[in-house]
């Protein structure tokens, strides 16, 4: 049976936990080679194991989507940092800064480098986002 993603590469940001970790093996079952992208090495390796258990191929990349150099080097798409589960009065300056860096700067950086890569290839998407609306706190 041919999967919907045969011969495709799925770069899954924030895939060390939450929705990203859940999506990575699904992409593998559909035939994609999965690039597990997260800043946490231990959780990345756990997701790589899940992809391989699903019969897929996986590579692991360290990246923080809030850093331009990481995004450019990894050619990745966006992740999400969800702080909405905390009462507003309990959100620290560091939590707020991280959420802005990941949710706004990270999306901008990812799209900037993805668009450049697509234009060089003549169009077409090259990666998949998986962390939208995650419930994991700021771990993209």
Question: What features would you describe in this structure?
Answer:
Residues 126-140 have low confidence and may be disordered. The protein is globular and about 50 Å long. The chain has one domain (9-121): Rossmann fold (3-Layer(aba) Sandwich), CATH 3.40.50.720. The longest helix has 29 residues, at 93-121. It is an alpha/beta fold and 140 residues long. Strands 1-2-3 form a three-stranded parallel sheet, covered by helices on one side. The protein is built from four helices and three strands, in the order βαβαβαα. The chain has helices at residues 18-29, 41-53, 68-74, 93-121, and strands at residues 9-13, 33-38, 58-62.
Give the arrangement of secondary structure elements.
Elements: E1 9-13, H1 18-29, E2 33-38, H2 41-53, E3 58-62, H3 68-74, H4 93-121
Parallel strand pairs: 1-2, 2-3
Helix pairs in contact: 1-2
Question: What can be said about this structure in brief?
Answer:
The chain has 140 residues and is of the alpha/beta class. The protein has helices spanning 18-29, 41-53, 68-74, 93-121, and strands at residues 9-13, 33-38, 58-62. Strands 1-2-3 form a 3-stranded parallel β-sheet, covered by helices on one side.
